Each structure stands twice: as structure tokens, then as C-alpha cells.
Amino acid sequence: MRFIIRYKWIILIAAVLISALVLTIISALSPGWAQGSSGILGTALRPIQTSLNAISDRVSTFWNSGRVIDELRAENARLRQHAANVEEQARLYQVTLEENERLRNFLDFKQRFRHFESIPATIIARDIDNYARTFTISRGSRHGVEPQMLVLNEYGQLIGVVSEVGSDNAVLRTVVDSEFACGAYVFRPGVDGVCRGRFELIHDGKLTMIGFSPDADIKSGDEVLTSGVGGLFPRDVIIGYISELESDINGMTVTAIITPVADLVHIDQVFIVMSFESEE
């Protein structure tokens, strides 16, 4: 029974063809009978013709459906190609926008920080773990980059210093790295200290400033800048703001926790200070 249901159209076509063949043979062998029995033969053939017409309509519908499917597939392929072309154009447009943004940042940086001789660089890799926070940048010794050069963002905010240099790239040690250190001062009271990274604070994106006595006139929100002591870094490059104060276990000194002003998470372009001169 399942066989009949499954192959009903094949069985129907076979039955119709066999019936037509039988009647054709009879007509060929007995022309007189066929002529004398045209009404009977016509009546007998009518269901066959109806079935053949139905089969023909079915085949035609199937054929047309297949053609429509082929056309839809071809149209779908064209739409996919068009979408791919649009996506590629959008990607190129975004790349152009980003490149224009980098050029604008470079020109703005050059204008605002004329006392710095600098070159732009792109961050090409990030190395973040419990004890280090470093970036690899797209400039190296063949571009004149050397260790201990200061690295800023487009706003002139401190990102870190160059720690290692290769021919075409360099390692940038950010301000929150546990080995970072530089002379600094708190702007409002003018109190000097030293900014250092601390590995316990790396994942919080913060660093410390040490060297304060308990009675130092510092508080949360005070601005911290480079002091320029030793001549290695220029003076007055902003590092960040004091977010909290903590006393040591003996109460002899106070450590300030500093939140960097620069965005170290989303940054992708930096400026390496090749040389600088003190502003008058």
C-alpha cells in the first residue's frame, strides 16, 4: 500500500500508456472495428486523453517551476554578489575614514605640540597579563626610534615609554605596566613624587604615585603631570588624576592611586616623541 501511495504518479502514467498502447494495437489490427466502433473507441480513449492532458499539465507545471527556481537562484546569486560589492565598498570607505582621521590627528598634534619632534605609529599588537601591559607599535630603529622615548596620544596625554626596539617595530611600555616609572608632580600644590606601575593595579588600569608624607596637601581629583626631572621626559605632560589615597602600614608615607587620563583600551594610534625642547 505504501508503495502504491509513494509511486502513484508513476503507476498512473504507466497505466495510461499501456491502455493507449492496447487501443492503438487493436485499432491497427482491426481497422474495420475501429471505424465501426469510433464512438466506442472515442469513449474509451477519452479518459486516457484526459489523463494524458493532466500529466502534460503536471509536467509543464513542474518544468515551469524548475525554470522559476533556476531564475530565483540566479537572481539570488546576483544579489549576493551585489551585497559583497557593497560590503567591500563600505570597508574601503571605513579604511579611508580611519586614515583621514589619523592624518588629521597627526596634523593637529604637530600644531598643538610644536616643541615636540614626533612621528606617528600604529599599535599592531597588545600583550596583557598580570605583570605587564605593553603594546607593539609600527615604528622601529630604522625610523629613528630609541628606548626611553616618550609616547603620547593625539591629545598629548602620556601613554608610556619605548622599552625595546626592533628594526621595524618597538615595544611600548604603558603607564600601568609594573616596570614603568617616571618623575611626576601634583599640579595644584606642586608636590613632587614618582609615578610607578603596580602589578596589583594593572587590571584596574591604574598606577601609583609615591613619596608623599602624611601631611602632604594632596587630595582626590588632583592632576598629575610629568616633572621633567633628569631631562629624560619633557615637563607638564599629563599622566592622570589622583583617584584615592592610601597610607602605608606604619603611617609614615602616603601613596596616591592614579587613574590615567589616556584611554589605554581603545587607542590604536600613538605619537613617539623623538626629541623635545623646553617651553619658555
Mean pLDDT: 80
Q: Supply the CATH superfamily name of the largest domain.
A: Rod shape-determining protein MreC, domain 2
Q: What is the approximate shape?
A: elongated
Number of helices: 4
Q: Between the first and last Cα atoms, what is the distance in angstroms?
A: 103 Å
Walkthrough of the structure:
By secondary structure, the protein is of the alpha+beta class. It has two domains: 2-67; 116-276, Thrombin, subunit H. Helix content is 39%, strand content 29%. The protein contains four helices and twelve strands; from the N terminus they run ααααββββββββββββ. The chain has helices at 2-6, 8-29, 31-36, 38-112; strands at residues 116-128, 133-137, 150-152, 158-165, 170-174, 181-186, 191-196, 207-212, 223-226, 238-247, 254-260, 269-276. The strands form two sheets. The chain has a six-stranded antiparallel barrel with strand order 1-2-5-4-3-12. The protein has a six-stranded antiparallel beta barrel with strand order 6-7-8-11-10-9. Strand 4 (158-165) and strand 5 (170-174) form a beta hairpin. Helix 2 (8-29) packs antiparallel against helix 4. The longest helix has 75 residues, at 38-112.
List keywords for this structure.
elongated; 2 domains; alpha+beta; single chain; 6-stranded antiparallel barrel; 29% strand; 4 helices; Thrombin, subunit H
Quick summary:
The protein is of the alpha+beta class and 280 residues long.
Write the layout of secondary structure elements.
Layout lengths: L1 H5 L1 H22 L1 H6 L1 H75 L3 E13 L4 E5 L12 E3 L5 E8 L4 E5 L6 E6 L4 E6 L10 E6 L10 E4 L11 E10 L6 E7 L8 E8 L4
Helix pairs in contact: 2-4
